[in-house]
Amino acid sequence: MASVIRGECPSPVPLKEKRLLDVRIAELPSWVLMRDFTPTGIAALPAPFGRGYDRYYNKYVNVGEESVAGVSMVLAACVGFSYCLSYKELQHERLRKYH
Amino acid sequence: MNENLFTSFSTPTLMGLPIIIMIIAFPALLYPTSNRLISNRIRTLQQYLINLILKQMMAIHSPKGRTWSLMLMSLIIFIASTNLLGLLPHTFTPTTQLSINLGLAIPLWAGAVILGFRYKFKTSVSHFLPQGTPILLIPMLIIIETISLFIQPMALAVRLTANITAGHLLMHLIGAATLALFSISTSTALITFIILLLLTILEFAVALIQAYVFTLLVSLYLHDNT
């Protein structure tokens, strides 16, 4: 009631369920404090990083007819990431006539 | 060339921050878990392999020794997956660092030995003196057996480090040699074949894991049961 007097409309969706983009700025501190994110997702605790892991897993790995594609995308990303990390040392190894 | 050879074994840093913790934790993401009884293909395959290894490993233990199953299975999966991931190009293998292998070997060995000494003191001490030795050799033999006991964790750690590091180095060297000889040719085909063979043999790094856990296992068995 007090919030209506101040001119804000009360939100129909409870604060807990909202995603970050839907939360109003005034509600942001209470949203952050009420964050209940840890037991969400389908396989609750075993997913180490919450929703991101589940989303990737369900979209690419946990399909009906599985193949190596889901896991090998992760491994290719791993190779790319390691290449970026060691680029500084690899700069000198290019194919050229004179080193 | 000399500096380039060993830079792949240095601790990986991202803008000055050591990210080795992320690299060590990464293989755990590749093994999905589920609450269902029957799951998808990858989980079924994973379950099958783990059951196979578990039965093979734990068959010789008494129930007391089998309480170590979780520990040993985690060990073998960790070492196997980090070694296999290290075979991908440019990746960093944590098990090439002696610090990590010592951190694995020493606590596990010490746990097994202390367990044996705590619960079966006479049996553990009796391992220092094999049956039927001539009396004059006894002091000598006890010293030798003690040394061999204390060298066990060092041997475990150094064995793993040396094998993986040597394999990686060899692949680097032979790869560089192949690339250098490519313009000169004739011997390139032979060297490329040697690379291929070496990579295949190096995939028996998994066999090294088997050796690692198995020797650890044998030590546990020996100290715990008989």
Automatic annotation (TrEMBL), chain A:
<dbReference type="Pfam" id="PF10206">
    <property type="entry name" value="WRW"/>
</dbReference>
<keyword id="KW-0597">Phosphoprotein</keyword>
<keyword id="KW-0066">ATP synthesis</keyword>
<keyword id="KW-0812">Transmembrane</keyword>
<keyword id="KW-0375">Hydrogen ion transport</keyword>
<protein>
    <recommendedName>
        <fullName>ATP synthase F(0) complex subunit f, mitochondrial</fullName>
    </recommendedName>
</protein>
<keyword id="KW-0406">Ion transport</keyword>
<keyword id="KW-0007">Acetylation</keyword>
<comment type="subunit">
    <text>Component of the ATP synthase complex composed at least of ATP5F1A/subunit alpha, ATP5F1B/subunit beta, ATP5MC1/subunit c (homooctomer), MT-ATP6/subunit a, MT-ATP8/subunit 8, ATP5ME/subunit e, ATP5MF/subunit f, ATP5MG/subunit g, ATP5MK/subunit k, ATP5MJ/subunit j, ATP5F1C/subunit gamma, ATP5F1D/subunit delta, ATP5F1E/subunit epsilon, ATP5PF/subunit F6, ATP5PB/subunit b, ATP5PD/subunit d, ATP5PO/subunit OSCP.</text>
</comment>
<keyword id="KW-1133">Transmembrane helix</keyword>
<keyword id="KW-0138">CF(0)</keyword>
<keyword id="KW-0813">Transport</keyword>
<dbReference type="InterPro" id="IPR019344">
    <property type="entry name" value="F1F0-ATPsyn_F_prd"/>
</dbReference>
<comment type="function">
    <text>Subunit f, of the mitochondrial membrane ATP synthase complex (F(1)F(0) ATP synthase or Complex V) that produces ATP from ADP in the presence of a proton gradient across the membrane which is generated by electron transport complexes of the respiratory chain. ATP synthase complex consist of a soluble F(1) head domain - the catalytic core - and a membrane F(1) domain - the membrane proton channel. These two domains are linked by a central stalk rotating inside the F(1) region and a stationary peripheral stalk.</text>
</comment>
<keyword id="KW-0472">Membrane</keyword>
<keyword id="KW-0496">Mitochondrion</keyword>
<comment type="similarity">
    <text>Belongs to the ATPase F chain family.</text>
</comment>
<keyword id="KW-0999">Mitochondrion inner membrane</keyword>
From TrEMBL, chain B:
<feature type="transmembrane region" description="Helical">
    <location>
        <begin position="133"/>
        <end position="154"/>
    </location>
</feature>
<dbReference type="GO" id="GO:0042776">
    <property type="term" value="P:proton motive force-driven mitochondrial ATP synthesis"/>
</dbReference>
<feature type="transmembrane region" description="Helical">
    <location>
        <begin position="189"/>
        <end position="222"/>
    </location>
</feature>
<keyword id="KW-0472">Membrane</keyword>
<keyword id="KW-1133">Transmembrane helix</keyword>
<dbReference type="GO" id="GO:0045259">
    <property type="term" value="C:proton-transporting ATP synthase complex"/>
</dbReference>
<dbReference type="Pfam" id="PF00119">
    <property type="entry name" value="ATP-synt_A"/>
</dbReference>
<feature type="transmembrane region" description="Helical">
    <location>
        <begin position="12"/>
        <end position="31"/>
    </location>
</feature>
<feature type="transmembrane region" description="Helical">
    <location>
        <begin position="160"/>
        <end position="182"/>
    </location>
</feature>
<dbReference type="InterPro" id="IPR023011">
    <property type="entry name" value="ATP_synth_F0_asu_AS"/>
</dbReference>
<keyword id="KW-0812">Transmembrane</keyword>
<comment type="subunit">
    <text>Component of the ATP synthase complex composed at least of ATP5F1A/subunit alpha, ATP5F1B/subunit beta, ATP5MC1/subunit c (homooctomer), MT-ATP6/subunit a, MT-ATP8/subunit 8, ATP5ME/subunit e, ATP5MF/subunit f, ATP5MG/subunit g, ATP5MK/subunit k, ATP5MJ/subunit j, ATP5F1C/subunit gamma, ATP5F1D/subunit delta, ATP5F1E/subunit epsilon, ATP5PF/subunit F6, ATP5PB/subunit b, ATP5PD/subunit d, ATP5PO/subunit OSCP.</text>
</comment>
<keyword id="KW-0813">Transport</keyword>
<keyword id="KW-0138">CF(0)</keyword>
<dbReference type="InterPro" id="IPR045083">
    <property type="entry name" value="ATP_synth_F0_asu_bact/mt"/>
</dbReference>
<feature type="transmembrane region" description="Helical">
    <location>
        <begin position="67"/>
        <end position="88"/>
    </location>
</feature>
<dbReference type="GO" id="GO:0005743">
    <property type="term" value="C:mitochondrial inner membrane"/>
</dbReference>
<keyword id="KW-0066">ATP synthesis</keyword>
<feature type="transmembrane region" description="Helical">
    <location>
        <begin position="100"/>
        <end position="121"/>
    </location>
</feature>
<keyword id="KW-0999">Mitochondrion inner membrane</keyword>
<keyword id="KW-0406">Ion transport</keyword>
<keyword id="KW-0375">Hydrogen ion transport</keyword>
